[in-house]
Amino acid sequence: MKPFVITSLLSCRQLNQHWQRQFPFLKLLVYSLSDRPVAGNEIERPLNELNSHLGALRWLRVDPGMSVNAFEIAFHYTFGMRVEVLRKLGYTWDDTEYTKSWTLQEQNRKGAAISTNYALHI
Q1: Rounded CA gap, 24 and 15, in Å?
Q2: Structural domain of 44
Q3: What CA–CA distance (Å, rounded) separates 19 from 116?
Q4: Banded pLDDT at 56 (limits 50, 70, 90)
Q5: Which of 51, 76, 87, 115 has the greatest number of C-beta atoms within 10 Å?
Q6: Quick check: helix, strand or coil at residue 76?
Q7: How many domains, the chain?
Q8: What is the C-alpha to C-alpha distance for residues 118 and 72, in angstroms, rounded to an integer?
Q9: What string of H, E and C letters represents the secondary structure of 26-66?
Q10: What is the DSSP letter of 101?
């Protein structure tokens, strides 16, 4: 997996599509400034419109080797909005609260292994 860049010009929908291509077993929840998940028509708005305080173009380089904790902190620092990484667990999504020190790549691999194992036992 190669590093990739997130910019403030991406909508939440575009961000999630790009995220899913990189990490198919991880889900990214973006929270608005009022600390609720971005939903409805908001998912079509660019990050710099969801947080009008951003001003200039901002970007974040995402390295699959960075920890979930480091990514969540960097996203908040760069875009001023909270984000949460969830891992696929069968047919549901589980938070990564207790495994935030794992890298994004490790989380994705674990999600793939759990989902594959789960599918075999159904």
Answers
A1: 13
A2: 4-120
A3: 20
A4: confident
A5: 87
A6: helix
A7: 1
A8: 28
A9: EEEEEECCCCCECCHHHHHCEHHHHCCCCCCCCEEEECCCC
A10: T
- Summarised one tens digit per residue, pLDDT across range 25-49 is 999 999 998 889 999 999 999 999 9
Q: Average pLDDT in the 99-104 region?
A: 97
104 vs 23: CA distance, rounded Å: 8
21's tokens = 């291509």
Which pLDDT does position 114 carry in this prediction? 87
First to last CA, the chain: 30
Which tokens belong to 37? 């998940």
119 confidence band (pLDDT: 50, 70, 90): low
Residues 101 and 77: their CA atoms lie apart, in Å, by 18
Supply 91's token pair.
């047919």
Residue type, 8: S
